[in-house]
Amino acid sequence: MSPKRSSPKPVGRAAAPVGRPSALLDTRIIYCGDCLDQLQKLPDGCVDLIYIDPPFNSNRNYEVFWGETREKRAFADRHASTQAYIEYMRPRCVELSRVLKKTGSFYYHCDWHADGYVRVMLDQILGENNFRSGIVWRRTNAKGLAFKGFPNNHDTVFYYTGPDGFTWNRQFTEYDPEYVAKFYRFIEEGTGRRYRLSDLTNPNPNRPNLTYEWKGHKRVWRWTKERMQEAHDKGIIHYSSTGLAAQKRYLDEMQGQPIDTVWDDIPPVQAQADERLGYPTQKPLALLDRIIKACSNPNDIILDAFCGCGTALVAAENLGRQWIGIDISPTACRVMAKRLRDVCKVREDEALWRTGKGFIVRDLPRSIEQLRAIPPFEFENWAVIALGGIPNKAQVGDMGIDGRIFPVAAAPKKRGAATGELDFMDHWYPIQVKQKDKAGRPDIDAFETAMERAERTKGFFVAFDYSADALTEIDRFFRKSGKVIVALTVREILEEEIARKLA
């Protein structure tokens, strides 16, 4: 483990929730921001279990469809080099090591692109003697058969612990039917219970106290004569045709097959899976369930510093653990918050959070400077949601429309899966977003065309500011067509001055 240093005290922390599990930090929070910055605010040795699934240095581009609104965007998972990737991850892993309890566990999920380098880095930070195992998770079936070589179809999950008394709850899977048929081939008359036989003779011949005759057979037995009689009376001894005793081991008393380091029983999130959100590297809930069950107990604190779509948080919530999530993407933070609300039925509510029941999201971009710095698709998402709209389903071929606002009057009386995603309604207003210091007349011209094509009478445009030509064109368009373009600035949205313009 890395040397500990004094950690900064949290600044301006809200009043502590009632009955929180730790006096050191608040839980049930999603932080939006770089985990390096957020982790530095946490005290030393405060977390029981850490799982991270950071970018893999896979040099791939993804097209992502988010949740019910199925927003399509590019998700870049790339670094200039493996060295750049490790240099990015090292200080973050140092901070993660610092906040991990000495009795805690640490999981780092990666793939073949950089797993060897990751292992060396983690040995240096967490201590090579604290390495427990490298878990192989089969994440897909054979692909890439067009090139020479074996397809890379598994991920690696490195498992480390602290040096002191870490939590370990052994996990089991059900026996394979072929194994059951082969080894539990006896069926008890009367009860129908399956069992196998276990030898009762002792491999150590020098045990005088265990040497006696039983049912005509003198042997060195594993049990004393008194225990053998007790087992006989309970009916848990099987006698062969020659009368030799063997122990019955019932299938229904076995916990199952102990789970080892090869996990091929958990499939990836399939295209039609109920839990699928469209996140390109989304991990199945069963994977996180297994990790959390094995290395934590109820009310322990779970930390995921690269949350993505929040699978670790959902698993932790379902299993009665406390949790902290961090992700640099505002979109990801909103998606995981929605997932907690929809799947776990937990309310995002400050008042409830203070009682230890709800959850909150902190540090979403609030300043103009922060909003200038985030990627364009994140900015578009922020603007559309801030207006109370729904992001467009696809950025490709969106015809100049980034989102839609449905007036309250257009909302269906009934809600649920049967009502769809509101896109069956024709009463909506388009939203166009430009991450520009000043939107110009060409931007307005393009939006006018989109409004004409969609036959909309009103639309909303968002930018940091507008040129004089742009504002003149908006006025000209209204006088000519009677159609309204509401020009909103980021400052107006941040200062909540938009109510009168949304009317």
Indicate the CATH architecture of the largest domain.
Answer: 3-Layer(aba) Sandwich
- Uncertain spans: 1-18, 61-74, 409-424
Describe the main β-sheet briefly: 9 strands, mixed
Number of helices: 15
Task: Please report which band the strand proportion falls in: under 5%, 5-15%, 15-25%, 25-35%, 35-45% or over 45%.
Answer: 15-25%
- Secondary structure: helix percent: 25-40%
Q: What's the structural domain tally?
A: 3
Q: What is the fold-level CATH name, i.e. the topology of the largest domain?
A: Rossmann fold
Oligomer: single chain
C-alpha termini separation: 58 Å
- CATH class of the largest domain equals Alpha Beta
Overall outline: elongated
Radius of gyration: 30 Å
In spatial order, strands of the major sheet run 16-6-7-5-2-17-18-1-19
> Which whole number gives the mean pLDDT?
84
The assigned structural class equals alpha/beta
The CATH homologous superfamily name of the largest domain equals: Vaccinia Virus protein VP39
Q: Would you give an account of this structure?
A:
The protein folds into three domains: about 30-170 and about 265-360, Vaccinia Virus protein VP39 (Rossmann fold); about 175-255, no CATH class; about 370-500, Trna Endonuclease, Chain: A, domain 1. Helix content is about 30%, strand content about 25%. It has 15 helices and 24 strands. The protein has helices at about 35-40, 80-100, 115-125, 175-185, 225-235, 285-295, 310-320, 330-345, 350-355, 370-375, 375-385, 440-455, 470-480, 490-495, 500, and strands spanning about 30, 45-50, 60-65, 70-75, 100-110, 130-140, 155-160, 170-175, 185, 195-200, 210-215, 215-220, 235-240, 245-250, 255-260, 260-265, 300-305, 320-325, 360, 390, 405, 430-435, 460-465, 485-490. α12 runs parallel beside α13 (about 470-480). The longest helix has 18 residues, at about 80-100.
